[in-house]
Amino acid sequence: MEFTLLQLTENLKIAFRADELSLIFAAITTVMWILTGIYSFGYMEHDEHKKRYAFFYILVYFVLMGLDFSANLITMYLFYELMTLTSVPLILHEMKEESVSAAMKYLYYSIAGAFMSLFGIFVLSQYAPTIDFVAGGSIVAAELSHGGLVLAGVFLMLIGFGAKAGMFPLHAWLPIAHPVAPAPASAVLSGIIAKSGVLAIIRVVFYVVGPEVLRGSWVQTAWMVLTLLTVVMGSVRAYEEKVLKKRLAYSTVSQISYILFGLSTLHPLGFVGAMLHVIFHAVAKNLLFLGAGSIIHQTGKIRVTELREIGRQMPVTLGCFGFAALSLVGIPPFSGFFSKWYLANGALASEIGGFSWAGPVVLLLSALLTAGYLFPVVVQGFLPGKEYDIKAPEKCEAGLNMTIPMVVLAVLTLLLGILSSGIIEFLTQLANSLV
Question: pTM for this one?
Fold first, then answer.
């Protein structure tokens, strides 16, 4: 069922429709928004501008719902731009010099990416039978004229929408913006808002163009190169970073490109792995940022080297952080293992030359680096060494408003892995209808 809000011209309309993809993104957005919103009550309790924060936090949610349920490229682009504009105040909330600078960088990169995407929309509107979203795409490769121009337009859209997802080369805003935003804003920026770029790319590739048009083309090759480059770069930078929230931001750069790599295989298994990681990464990364926010809120410590013994002060918080780390690294039975399993198998089954083995190798390398930048925080937090054994520190856990959402997310990282068979079956049916 489709609802048309505004008929702009005979062929252009602002319209909404619910399908399997929109329901997945809307569901995960709603769950994360509610849990992070509850956390915000405690985190923002003494903030003098908490009402302004709450207004934009709710506004961004409704804009994301419009984006998720868009029925065509024009509607999606409109809400994509609105999402950028309405989320800027979340980044510059504290109104410090670095906050304003980071918000402007986020805005500039997003607008640059959006203009590239707009060019691609102009191209597709000329050569695609329709810009409405159709499962499997509406362009028939064998009948395509001006194929070079269409491929160029699609590639620009991949780069443009990939800016929001933190894909190289338009990734630099993400590690700057996340650390300066309030922790709950960082959580939804990383776990949800950055994935609006993923949603837009899925719509373009699998609902407008169609995978057959891109399979074996230079666009697929370039796309895969960029995703794997981003995975390695983000992981290495996260491993080297000493500021906790910035380390998590670089991790997001890497992890979201896992998703984009799975999509670039244009194979059902890769698609399933990508969609699993959309869900599982949202849960784990929201939890990591909320955990980091609680530590900063309660202790003021922002650097990894300051977190020795933090597990004695905040055992629940660091325990939840540890659950998220296990999931993000991909340790079974935590949820992240299953998404990475399908991503690796999707690459191997796609039979796309060197990428069939390069993909799994890069994913394994990134997993090792992920363990290298997350596990020491947990291990040293609980087991700081003999020099810290003299006196047990005083407990300083955050209040229930902040702790309960983290516990719920920690449980989800495990339950979604144990009960993943139903999700995988649903996503497999969706993948077979698209790829």
Answer: 0.94
